[in-house]
Amino acid sequence: MYYKRVIEFVSTIKYGDKMIMRKYAVVKSKVNVFNGGENVEIPSFGIEISEQVISENAVEAEFGDAVVHVSPYKDKVEALAKKFCSEDLSPLHLSDIIDDMYIEYIADYDEYAKECKIAI
Questions:
Q1: Residue 49: beta bridge partners?
Q2: In which band, very low, low, confident or very high, does the pLDDT at 1 lie, cut at 50, 70 and 90?
Q3: Contacts of 95 (CB under 8 A, 6+ apart)
Q4: Dihedral of the CA atoms 7, 49, 47, 66 (nearest 10)?
Q5: Per DSSP, which regions of 1-120 are E strands?
């Protein structure tokens, strides 16, 4: 799957002699939504969180996770990424948190597809 980072927020934490740097990126891709007898290709925004553990100016560990399809509305996903950054969410918990919020965001795709059909 191809996606592109469009916005990024960075958080750094000093933990003993190590520094933890987390990047919260809003990513953009496309998704096909079936709407009234036709497939409509719409933008899809998601979140990618990456973490680096730095010790003595060298990367000691690096990992991350991404949920590519959260909402077709960039502002909603950007607000979510800012919230995750301020709460210092670990990439290990991203999928769990998004799963709990899924119902709030999944309907956005149908709404957006209907708006596209009206505009055409």
A1: 24, 65
A2: low
A3: 65, 67
A4: 140
A5: 4-15, 18-35, 38-55, 58-71
Both tokens of 98, joined, read 């998004």
Which segment, 4-8, 79-83, 102-106, is predicted with the most confidence on average? 79-83
Q: Contact, 117 vs 40, CB < 8 A?
A: yes
74-86 and 94-119 helices, crossing angle to 10° = 160
Please name the helix (run of DSSP H) or strand (run of DSSP E) that holds residue 72, with its range, or none. Answer: none
The answer, yes or no, to whether residue 120 has pLDDT greater than 50, is no
Name the amino acid, one letter, at 120. I
Place of tokens 């690096």: 62
Element (H, E) at 118: helix 94-119
The C-alpha angle 53, 99, 9, rounded to 5 degrees, equals: 40
